[in-house]
Amino acid sequence: MRIVLGVTGGIAAYKAALLLRLMTESGHQVDVVPTPAALRFVGKATWEALSGRPVRTDTFEAVETVNHVRLGREAELVVVAPATADALARTAAGLAPDLLGNVLLTATCPVLVAPAMHTEMWQHPATVANVATLRSRGITVLDPDSGRLTGRDTGPGRFPEPERIWAEARRLAGLGDDAGTGAAAGPGTPADGPLAGRTVVVTAGGTREALDPVRYLGNRSSGKQGVALAEAALAAGAAVRFIGGSMSVEPPAGAEVTRVESTAELHAAVMDRAAGADALIMAAAVADFRPAEYAEAKIKKSEDGSSPVIRLERTPDILAETVRARAAGEPMPGVIVGFGAETGDAEASVLEYGAAKLARKGCEMLVVNQVGGGRGFGQDDNEVTMLFADGRDPVEVAGSKAEVARAVVGQLGALLGP
Ligand SMILES: Cc1cc2nc3c(=O)[nH]c(=O)nc-3n(C[C@H](O)[C@H](O)[C@H](O)COP(=O)(O)O)c2cc1C
User: Fold this and answer.
1) Is the beta carbon of 80 within 6 A of some atom in ligand 1?
2) I need a surface site. Which of 25, 51, 151, 263 has the fewest CB within 10 A?
3) How far is residue 239 from each of residues 195, 296, 406, measured CA to CA in Å?
């Protein structure tokens, strides 16, 4: 795998040499891209000797190879470790004053960032906001460890152990456990992820409403986004109860899976499985209407050539039901997330419909998903806007369904709090 290891100018830069060692010993090709400040801590010679590759830091070096776009485009994984407060701010702002900034703007692969800094810097509102921005874009930002810092002080901000970063990076890149380094999946993997100890219920896929024993009314939901959400929650350390309707993909490994077909079954499963959970993500595409009558025998063509008329009735609004049950004192999750697939029209935009829906449903967060025109159902990419009931600014995210899922789960973690 082609990895770019970005190193920025913190005291922990020397520990990135150990991380580089773990990567190269597993057989990966690693291009180290230090910032100019990083080179004041650990020199180029160390990075070149350990990676066996030329090391560049400036956008204007080796211009003939178009490094400033090539490295990012070709990377299959980018890890920035350590990431300074300054680097987090630049990345959040989309600045590219050096080669690493250009790599981060051109990379489309998974990106993992391991910040390290003094506690005051880590807890500064500017850094907190920058980290939230990066997470909302699908970048995985590890929480630093708590412990001894550069001086005599201790607190959150310590650079995580290289083994933990490498374990998290492997997981992000879809690599298994690394027998080569002997690094077992330890801390930094789900066990101490941001949702460790939480239970998250995720619904996914479409519903099928039977007309007769062979026919149904359904929708085009593939279940891909819901499965990606469940996987992101699992990766963040949550126990996941997954409720899947009709889907074109497999349910997520590692989740407790319940399969359903109709809206009524989904309703019952949600009320049962969501009890006692911390969060509910309703990503299933639930039918709004179902046939009012079910024909016990297959509906036949009539002799006179006429067509049957199907009368529809409303289905229960499961999302609103969970909010209502919670208000009535039932043990429903404290954070309920709805998904709204919307198409705008002449009367209102997609976001206006989304905002109205959020208010109507009474949930904490609504992920508005524009469908139609090649977006949404069945696609591998998605473009959503997250709206929040507590008045925080909407967050937009576009990318693969896995990236969108990581961003949604990141916001979910923020809503759940520590
Ligand atoms: C001795 C020393 C240690 C530093 N350690 C850190 C650190 O751990 N984290 C951090 O965010 N900044 C640290 N800084 C400040 C950064 O080096 C400075 O903000 C710099 O602009 C970062 O540049 P870069 O992000 O381009 O690498 C340190 C500075 C010095 C002089």
Assistant:
1) no
2) 151
3) 8, 40, 16
Whether ligand 1 lies within 6 angstroms of the CB of 121 is answered as yes
Q: How far is CA 229 from CA 59, 122, 386, in A?
A: 37, 28, 14
Taking the C-alpha atoms of residue 361 and residue 368, their distance in angstroms, rounded to an integer, is 13
Task: Based on the residue annotation, tell me whether 369 is a catalytic residue of this protein.
Answer: no
The rounded Å distance from CA 133 to ligand 1 centre is 21
Q: Tell me what pLDDT residue 8 has.
A: 98
Q: Which domains does the chain have, with CATH numbers?
A: 2-192 (3.40.50.1950), 199-416 (3.40.50.10300)
- Report the atom number in ligand 1 closest to the C-alpha of 37: 27
> What is the rounded distance in angstroms from the CA atom of residue 133 to the CA atom of residue 290?
41
Task: Say if ligand 1 is within 6 A of residue 101 CB.
Answer: no
Query: Which of 67, 102, 130, 219 is the catalytic position?
Result: 219
Q: Which residues have a Cβ under 8 Å from the Cβ of 362 and sit 6 or more positions away?
A: 320, 323, 324, 327, 389
Distance CA 324, CA 310 (A): 31
Q: Determine the Cα–Cα distance for residues 203 and 71; give it in Å rounded to an integer.
A: 38
**Does the C-beta of 117 come closer than 6 Å to ligand 1?**
yes
Q: Which of 315, 268, 265 is nearest to 291 (CA)?
A: 315
Maximum alpha-carbon separation in the chain: 91
| Positions of the chain with pLDDT lower than 70, given as ranges | 176-192, 372-380
Q: Please compute Rg for the chain using Cα positions.
A: 24
The pLDDT of residue 348 is: 81
The confidence score (pLDDT) of residue 190 equals: 63
